[in-house]
């Protein structure tokens, strides 16, 4: 006599916690994987809805395993195998990994390839970043307005928002799928009850409107010495910064200043897509920025951030003036970041980075970007709380 | 659902009657009816109703759930636990014919667990309790503020990495070094027998203690700075591995045995014709060959059926010898003893060779010499044969490095995995270095994990001077 235990509808999702932890680990992996992808992908001007593929190696459980570069195995065949026959596509056999030390191909190997949109990727990347010291002028922050409206549908919700119409439609759909209709049902006395899956609820969209009083000034060197590679790096940097601000701070004002020997305020489109030429007078950009701040953004009321990308080839006579104004700019800004773009590793004799070492303002950060891979760490450096005035290479 | 619980109970009684007539000797049986979600859950915890928390079980669930949803299988027909009383799960969505098949199958497993000698140390009476208590202990560490989830996870991750490196065959008594030495001297000092004149003379210095393959135990006993809770986690992981190990070592036999019995019992059950057809369809689905792979059900069933002598009809009666085989063998000995060339040809077994991505047939079963190669390769890869043998050589006196040897058998280790696994070992070895001797591309090498770095050094000196 065996004992039978009846099916119990009471569910306890026992693996929930372990699944949650696994998800966390996968997410960490994605995050690591994404910065590689972003660095390599040419993302400037890309549509934000563009899907990019992020390959993630599954969270592996490492053990001692046999590799597949050499070795024998036995398998069931069709009985028609001939000695020496090459089996090219062996079903059920693991695929070959590439190269030594690469991921093995033991059965425990799982490679996930997630497809996420650029925007999601950027959000994942930016998760830990923020505009530093944003809080200090909170006092002046305009009130947030909250609007509620019903928008869309969802499977779960409260009773009050049950969409009777949609729910009824689902029931009818299910009924039809079973080959029944209401006429046939009313003949018999059988009922066709609602199922949990039928229920549809209205979704409540919470609209918040924030008026954060922050402005970000993007200053870019567009002089002749800024060749294609340098401009690409500068634009990558600003593109990421811009996307970050847009996703994280809905109403932050951003304005663009392009400069060579003289500076002017330009539109977003001009800033990212137009090339210029000519010499470089860095101070012109700073003066322009200071002018704009004085006219429109009172430092008492606004959080001001300024970033400047240049290759550092300045007219030597302007250096002193540039430093002076950089200091002035630092005084009115929450953060002033200077990124010097030097793709060539060779010695360069006139570089602003050395000059800028003289600046003692605490909220001035300067660093160097050499390759596209260094753009992301640079941005990270600017936007993390810890910003000691050190050089980064 | 074309059945109620009463139907199952009725069919179960019929099955049990036949099973007992046929000589099956099993633990009391308990069946639990569950749905696919429960089943996936049980599967990811290897059937155990309680298990300690670890993300790998969550991963296992997700993987099997995805596979199930994509229609790639991933869902077991049956799940039986080696416990007394024996616990098995029946899926609520299965039709009656399938339930009958599964129940008959379960009695086969149940009998195997109770009688096969490899399971004798697994203490079936305490199995569920043991796992539950282990889970509670680990949970208590998680809840200890100074340890926490992260602390436990770190040790569990590391312990899982080497969990299979325990004594594989619990039937082989492990002798201490002193006992081995005694045995050796005893052998040296005894009077010479006829054959011994032919042997080379042995000297006292020749004594080399056998290396232990129980890496987990060695770390438990010798790691210098492991805290008691860390050791306890290792002990738990080791205990649970030793519980599951016999199931790995007897996979082909166990599934073959259970399949043989469900098939035999069902032929004696006088099923209604429609159900009989359903049953045969399910049966064939289970034991079908996986071309390019190995289906333990397929190989096990054919061998068992052949040995029982019931291949052509059930009239002949079952050869009682199979009960002895079920008791004393494990997959490796079973295949070595009973897998003949004829059977191998019938099963279509062949051997393949991998060489840098190219896979070619190296031996086939209908070859008068080659079939043995195929068989031996198969034996090498069954049970824990797919897990490299790592032995403990000792501890280097100066650097306190843990010295390990990989018993090389022609199959190379995956170095990427070696480095990560050694990192885990180093965690358990209190961050002291770990060395592993192995072979890569016909060269003896030592893999060294030291201070967060992994490197591979060649052992041959000629190579270095060259």
Automatic annotation (TrEMBL), chain A:
Residues 1-24, 71-109 are annotated as: Disordered. It comes from the Bacteria. InterPro entries: UPF0229, vWFA_dom_sf. Residues 88-97 have a biased composition (Low complexity). This is UPF0229 protein KMW28_15275. Belongs to the UPF0229 family. Transmembrane segments: none annotated. It holds the Pfam family DUF444.
Automatic annotation (TrEMBL), chain B:
Residues 2-385 form the SpoVR protein-like N-terminal domain. This is SpoVR family protein. PANTHER family: STAGE V SPORULATION PROTEIN R (PTHR30029). It comes from the Bacteria. InterPro entries: Spore_V_R, SpoVR_N. It holds the Pfam family SpoVR.
């Amino acid at each position: 006599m065996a004992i039978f235990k009846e099916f119990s509808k009471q569910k306890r999702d026992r693996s929930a916690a372990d699944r949650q932890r696994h998800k966390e680990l996968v997410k960490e992996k994605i995050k690591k994987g994404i910065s590689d992808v972003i660095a390599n992908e040419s993302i400037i001007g890309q549509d934000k809805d563009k899907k990019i593929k992020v390959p993630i190696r599954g969270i592996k459980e490492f053990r001692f395993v046999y590799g597949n570069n050499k070795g024998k195995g036995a398998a069931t065949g069709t009985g028609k195998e001939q000695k020496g026959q090459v089996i090219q596509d062996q079903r059920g056999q693991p695929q070959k990994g590439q190269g030594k030390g690469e991921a093995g191909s033991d059965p425990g190997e799982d490679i996930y390839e997630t497809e996420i949109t650029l925007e999601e990727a950027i959000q994942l990347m930016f998760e830990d970043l923020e505009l530093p010291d944003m809080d200090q002028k909170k006092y002046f922050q305009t009130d947030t307005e909250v609007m509620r409206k019903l928008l869309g549908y969802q499977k779960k919700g409260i009773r009050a928002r049950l969409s009777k119409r949609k729910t009824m439609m689902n029931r009818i759909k299910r009924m039809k799928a079973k080959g029944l209709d209401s006429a046939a049902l009313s003949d018999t006395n059988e009922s066709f009850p609602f199922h949990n899956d039928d229920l549809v609820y209205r979704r409540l969209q919470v609209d918040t409107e924030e008026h954060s009083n922050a402005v970000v000034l993007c200053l870019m060197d567009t002089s002749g010495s800024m060749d294609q590679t340098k401009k690409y790096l500068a634009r990558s940097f600003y593109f990421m910064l811009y996307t970050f601000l847009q996703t994280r701070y809905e109403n932050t004002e951003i304005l663009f200043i392009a400069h060579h020997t003289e500076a002017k305020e330009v539109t977003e489109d001009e800033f990212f897509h137009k090339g210029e030429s000519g010499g470089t007078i860095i101070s012109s950009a700073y003066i322009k920025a200071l002018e704009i701040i004085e006219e429109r953004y009172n430092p008492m009321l606004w959080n001001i951030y300024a970033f400047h990308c240049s290759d550092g080839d300045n007219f030597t006579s302007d250096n002193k003036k540039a430093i002076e104004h950089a200091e002035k700019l630092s005084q009115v800004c929450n953060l002033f970041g200077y990124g010097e773009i030097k793709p060539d590793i060779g010695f360069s004799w006139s570089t602003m980075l050395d000059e800028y070492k003289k600046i003692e303002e605490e909220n001035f950060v300067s660093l160097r970007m050499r390759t596209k891979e260094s753009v992301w760490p640079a941005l990270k450096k600017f936007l993390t709380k810890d910003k000691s005035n050190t050089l980064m290479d | 659902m074309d059945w109620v619980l009463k139907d199952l109970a009725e069919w179960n009684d019929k099955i049990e009657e036949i099973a007992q007539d046929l000589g099956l000797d099993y633990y009391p049986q308990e069946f639990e009816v569950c749905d696919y979600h429960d089943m996936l859950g049980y599967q990811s915890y290897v059937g155990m109703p309680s298990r300690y928390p670890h993300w790998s079980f969550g991963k296992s669930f997700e993987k099997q759930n995805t596979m199930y949803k994509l229609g790639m299988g991933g869902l077991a027909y049956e799940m039986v636990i080696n416990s007394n009383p024996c616990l098995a799960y029946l899926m609520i969505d299965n039709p009656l014919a399938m339930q009958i098949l599964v129940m008959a199958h379960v009695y086969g497993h149940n009998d195997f667990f109770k009688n096969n000698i490899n399971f004798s140390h697994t203490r079936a009476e305490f199995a569920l309790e043991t796992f539950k208590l282990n889970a509670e202990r680990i949970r208590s560490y998680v809840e200890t503020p100074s340890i926490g989830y992260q602390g436990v996870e770190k040790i569990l991750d590391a312990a899982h990495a080497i969990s299979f490196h325990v004594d594989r065959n619990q039937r082989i008594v492990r002798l201490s070094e002193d006992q081995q030495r005694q045995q050796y001297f005893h052998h040296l000092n005894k009077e010479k027998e006829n054959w011994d004149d032919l042997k080379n003379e042995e000297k006292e210095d020749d004594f080399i203690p056998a290396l232990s393959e129980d890496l987990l135990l060695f770390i438990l006993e010798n790691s210098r700075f492991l805290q008691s809770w860390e050791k306890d986690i290792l002990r738990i992981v080791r205990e649970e591995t030793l519980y599951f190990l016999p199931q790995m070592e007897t996979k082909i036999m166990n599934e073959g045995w259970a399949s043989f019995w469900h098939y035999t019992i069902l032929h004696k059950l006088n099923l209604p014709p429609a159900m009989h057809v359903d049953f045969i369809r399910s049966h064939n689905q289970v034991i079908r060959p996986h071309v390019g792979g190995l289906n333990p059900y397929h190989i096990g069933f054919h061998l068992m059926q052949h040995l029982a002598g019931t291949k052509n009809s059930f009239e002949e009666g079952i050869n009682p010898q199979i009960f002895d085989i079920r008791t004393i063998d494990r997959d490796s000995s079973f295949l070595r003893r009973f897998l003949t060339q004829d059977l191998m040809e019938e099963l279509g077994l062949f051997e393949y060779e991998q060489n840098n991505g190219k896979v070619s047939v190296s031996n086939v079963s209908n070859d008068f010499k080659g079939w043995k190669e195929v068989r031996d390769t198969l034996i090498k890869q069954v049970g824990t044969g797919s897990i490299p043998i790592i032995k403990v050589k000792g501890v280097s006196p100066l650097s306190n490095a843990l010295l390990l040897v990989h018993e090389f058998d022609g199959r190379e280790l995956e170095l990427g995995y070696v480095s990560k696994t050694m990192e885990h070992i180093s965690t358990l070895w209190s961050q002291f270095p770990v060395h592993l001797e192995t072979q890569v591309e016909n060269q003896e090498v030592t893999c060294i994990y030291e201070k967060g770095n992994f490197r591979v050094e060649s052992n041959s000196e000629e190579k270095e001077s060259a």
